Prior knowledge:
Layout: H1 8-18, E1 25-29, E2 42-43, E3 53-54, E4 58-61, H2 63-66, E5 70-77, E6 90-94, E7 106-109, E8 114-116, E9 119-121, E10 132-133, E11 144-146, H3 154-162, E12 167-171, E13 175-181, E14 185-186, E15 198-199, H4 202-212, E16 216-223, H5 227-240, E17 243-247, H6 258-265, E18 267-272, E19 275-276, E20 280-286, E21 289-294, H7 298-317, E22 327-331, E23 342-352, E24 355-360, H8 370-373, E25 377-381, E26 392-397, H9 398-403
Amino acid sequence: xxxxxxxxxxxxxxxxxxxxxxxxxxxxxxxxxxxxxxxxxxxxxxxxxxxxxxxxxxxxxxxxxxxxxxxxxxxxxxxxxxxxxxxxxxxxxxxxxxxxxxxxxxxxxxxxxxxxxxxxxxxxxxxxxxxxxxxxxxxxxxxxxxxxxxxxxxxxxxxxxxxxxxxxxxxxxxxxxxxxxxxxxxxxxxxxxxxxxxxxxxxxxxxxxxxxxxxxxxxxxxxxxxxxxxxxxxxxxxxxxxxxxxxxxxxxxxxxxxxxxxxxxxxxxxxxxxxxxxxxxxxxxxxxxxxxxxxxxxxxxxxxxxxxxxxxxxxxxxxxxxxxxxxxxxxxxxxxxxxxxxxxxxxxxxxxxxxxxxxxxxxxxxxxxxxxxxxxxxxxxxxxxxxxxxxxxxxxxxxxxxxx
Length: 404
Ligand code: AMP
Ligand code: MG
């Protein structure tokens, strides 16, 4: 059966429909939970801040009756103390974070007041609530601060700490097996290369991205272009991992055995993508385990991994879906002779007075991996589109694609 070429969006959605999130949950201390996906929503048990308090070092007063007055300083309230009520027509010396005394509703910054002999002279205009942090102004008790499926970042861990949480219930790390197919591939470190050989670079790129996303990796290394060996590793990998990623051998050549072995062991769901670089790509199922086969060319593998495999892996991990985030930039190049496929050009981004400028990396070959390392973004060019100089184009910032 001839399978259609899918657009990036169709492929992303088709994969997401197929993604069954893992169910197993673990409890992790906050410091271990960075990059983990919350298994349950988090409701705050407390107001943050817990009590109304001073936002500055200064003097707590009742605003309505104190403007321009010289008032006796009746109390001194450092942070962490329990103040008594403010005596009428007096001021209390107060410090940042200290609870506001009953009866006070404003804090005058110490630089704006003149203190002498146990009294303080206040500015002529005061307003209720100035330099006061209201109880619950950050978080209300009972409020949902994160939903299930949220991937925790450092700042989120800080927010969890602020409501008194010390451990969280998260999805266990997704286990992903990675293998590279190709008779010509050699592990880095082995020398010298024989004629026609090359070092496998996809393996370390993909494994590193998976680690960066907090996933567990199983490294199956290089597998030769041999259907029997490929089938053996595919079934081992699909037994031990939640998802299998392969690169190479998924095109139409006689040495490309990946699709036939997916069909042999399970089901092939789709094959070709309508993008450049990265046309050959397959999704299959071996038993309950999805297998995603990416092109061998390093640029293609990288682009397809980020644009198509990543949202799928995130969905398997239980992460909520995020749309691609495009940034407009002005093209500092022309592109003639449109392609039938959606293109992802590697571009360097710089800041100009009118906004971001995108300069085309000079070598766009799908084997030129330097283009990925020396670029900042992928410029998305829809099928059958030419680009003129200064035209506004949509780019996907690589750092954001990788880390979001
Ligand atoms: P294939 O998809 O197997 O036809 O491979 C396409 C191109 O990518 C060939 O030039 C391969 O040598 C190269 N290639 C395949 N796998 C890798 C890999 N793991 N690392 C670097 N290059 C690779
Ligand atoms: Mg090959």
